[in-house]
Amino acid sequence: MTIKHVNTLVTIIAIVTVTACGGSGVASGPPGTEGPVPSGGAVTGKSAANLITAADITLGDIDRAMAGKGQAIYDVKCQACHSTGPNRVVGPGWKGVTERRKPEWIMNMMLNIDAMLETDPEAQKALEECLVRMPNQGLSKDEGREVLEFMRTL
Ligand code: HEC
Fold this sequence. Notes:
Strand content: under 5%
Bound molecules: heme C
CATH superfamily: Cytochrome c-like domain
Number of helices: 7
CATH topology: Cytochrome Bc1 Complex, Chain D, domain 2
Number of strands: 0
Shape: globular
């Protein structure tokens, strides 16, 4: 093997080892994962002006029916990358997420991920840690609110 080959091999090994997010054993994301983040992060989302604010969300006692709908959405669209426990899969685990994060921040991560990754330091930090850009899941605002209700039960 020439030096050049050895260098290529080392690079490949380095790339393979950094793909897991938090050591859960998942080395790469499911279909739909966009892979390592391009520097400069292409922005396709809405502008920050459209972000949800605290005034847009009312939280009362937990609405079990709404949480059930949120769980059904989770099962289909989120489970591949998020656990309901504390552990990371591709993205962060959801246990206690409503205590760590403000409701409007969570809603914006669900509905306006591109604008969040463009403007929000916490979202950018999560992206640096996970190395995978969360794909926009195309939820409606009502669906997002149902998933938020489900998160409140975790
Ligand atoms: C392909 C993997 C993938 C899928 C599918 C996915 N996410 Fe994510 N999610 C991520 C990654 C990676 C992050 C952290 C990095 C980032 O923000 O891009 C994240 C972050 C989040 C966060 C912030 C959590 C925190 O603790 O900071 C929320 C909320 C979230 N996702 C909600 C959802 C919802 C709701 C769905 C389903 C409708 C979903 N995600 C589907 C990968 C995914």
